[in-house]
Design a protein that fits this description.
- It contains 18 helices and no strands.
- The chain is mostly helical.
- α8 packs across α15 and α11 (301-323) packs parallel to α16.
- It is globular and about 70 Å long.
């Protein structure tokens, strides 16, 4: 499977179901005390998931597993995988149990702004105890996905986050007869989704002839050289691979001090950032790691550099247009302004969306560059970078949160992203792993120019619609949707025309290629 197809596979359905999930939550939870408590509870397992599962563990496990497939064969690779998952489940099981016990104190640390409201702390702690087992379950899911990715199977793992989104949506209605409160139903749906994801991926592992069963006698495993190497790489990778989520945690801690609703405004804004970041950035990182690992193991450095270039190009092409967020308010109005989510919440969220969008392409490029270190077994360098980024994010946040509130915290996160980008570009070049070539810089400039022209057309179109209709965002949802679709259509057409003019992409040739491929598949 090609890199581009891998990225597309990981992204499409996650984007669609993710938007629908957030629409449902905005409708039932709004942006107030209850939603603040839930988003803290939802953030906790996802923070550690990014650190342990999709971050440090996957980044350390996949290169070793891929290399064993190439050098030692399938049987040796699976033996290593059995030992790794056994140690992971044991370690995270103890961690989850400990966190369940101390959850009220954890909530106070993560959201110190709740300290003056005992009811908020109690609700957030209760919801967190429901959602936190998801960490253990999704860590197993990430492990299963890493194995399937190493075999070149990307479609089944791509469905895992889709299962989470659909389960959270379905839980709102499925549990209605037995649970009155919507927020409890959604929280229960989070943990149930982890169980369903494990069952789903286990089916596809068996189709590949991979049967993973836990080893309960761990004494021999801790003496294994492979397991020791794995955990040596995991330890520094916990910080290095999860810098984005750690920055989000810093944002949550600080924004809880801003006031009620601020956590929710940043959450919804961050979701609009996370969806393209998850669809493009995380997909590139996950798809790229096993490919680079195999190429470097085979000694094909030239091909690895070409793969890295392509990953950056795809990331830029898909993220820069998404960062031109001139339609922030209409997007939030259509997606979220229903039920308990009102006009004020839309305005507050839109400000944060614009602030976050400044760094979207930079974060995607960092996601694409990080595997270059992990594929070489270098997990220490990203740690050094992340410490600097965390410090920068904290300093910028403290400087900006008082005058600008939640928007200042979002701007600080974007500024920290540029610090991270500079470190990765400089570090890769210094070590001779890869360099940001002049040709690549020209490509980024062209895509940015095309996106700015598209943004100007969208902005002008929005103003024209307002003048012609007297305020089209006041219409009903079904009246707004076709008008918004028309705006997006003109934006996409403008971007495609500009990419043709500048030579960034030949849309006609791409469409012809896709049609030919579809005919071959049929």
């Amino acid at each position: 499977m090609s890199l581009f197809k891998s990225i597309a596979t990981f992204g499409g359905w996650t984007l669609i179901t993710g938007f629908f999930r957030d629409m449902v939550m905005a409708n039932y939870l709004g942006a107030g005390a209850v939603s603040d408590a839930f988003f803290v509870a939802f953030k906790l397992p996802n923070l550690f998931r990014s650190l342990f599962a999709e971050g440090a563990f996957t980044s350390a496990f996949v290169p070793i597993f891929s290399q064993k497939l190439v050098g030692g064969g399938k049987a040796q690779a699976i033996k290593f995988a059995v030992g790794a998952i056994s140690v992971l489940v044991f370690s995270l099981g103890l961690f989850v149990l400990l966190m369940e016990i101390v959850m009220p104190w954890v909530v106070v640390v993560l959201a110190p702004g709740f300290a003056d409201d005992a009811g908020k702390i109690e609700l957030a702690a209760f919801l967190s105890r429901i959602t936190f087992p998801f960490l253990l379950l999704v860590s197993v899911v990430s492990f299963q996905s890493g194995i399937l990715n190493s075999f070149g199977k990307f479609a089944a793992p791509a469905a895992a986050p889709v299962i989470l989104n659909l389960t959270m949506i379905a839980a709102v209605w499925v549990f209605m007869p037995v649970i009155d409160t919507p927020v409890y139903r959604i929280a229960l749906g989070v943990t149930l989704a982890g169980v369903l994801e494990i069952i789903w991926l286990n089916f596809f592992l068996r189709r590949e002839g991979v049967n993973i069963s836990l080893v309960y006698d761990l004494s021999g495993l801790f003496k294994s050289e492979d397991i020791r190497v794995l955990f040596k790489r995991i330890a520094p990778g916990v910080l290095g691979a999860g810098v984005y989520q750690i920055n989000m945690m810093v944002d949550t801690i600080l924004v809880s001090l801003v006031g009620t609703g601020a956590i929710s405004w940043l959450y919804y804004a961050n979701r609009l950032q996370q969806l393209p970041l998850g669809v493009v950035g995380a997909a590139i990182g996950v798809a790229l790691l096993p490919i680079l690992s195999r190429q470097l193991k085979a000694g094909d450095d030239g091909e690895a550099k070409k793969t890295q270039d392509k990953a950056i190009e795809y990331g830029v092409l898909l993220s820069v247009p998404a960062a031109i967020i001139v339609l922030a308010e209409p997007i939030i109005n259509i997606l979220f302004q229903h039920g308990k989510f009102g006009l004020f919440e839309t305005e507050m969220t839109a400000r944060a969306v614009i602030a976050y969008s400044l760094s979207l392409p930079v974060y995607v490029m960092v996601k694409a560059m990080t595997p270059n270190f992990f594929a070489r077994g270098d997990t220490r360098t990203p740690v050094k970078y992340s410490v600097v980024v965390l410090a920068a994010n904290l300093i910028f946040s403290l400087l900006l949160m008082k005058p600008f509130g939640h928007t200042g915290i979002a701007v600080a996160t974007s500024l920290a992203a540029f610090v991270s980008f500079y470190q990765y570009v400089r570090g890769l070049k210094k070590r001779g792993y890869w360099s940001f070539s002049r040709e690549l810089a020209v490509y980024v400039g062209k895509v940015t120019f095309c996106s700015l022209v598209m943004g100007a057309v969208l902005y002008g179109g929005g103003l024209a619609l307002d003048l012609l209709t007297g305020g089209w965002l006041k219409f009903s949802l079904w009246a707004k949707l076709p008008l918004f679709g028309l705006l997006c259509f003109f934006g996409v057409v403008t971007f495609c025309i500009m990419t043709k003019i500048t030579g960034v992409m030949d849309v006609a040739a791409l469409a012809k290629s896709l049609l030919k491929r579809k005919e071959r598949d049929v």
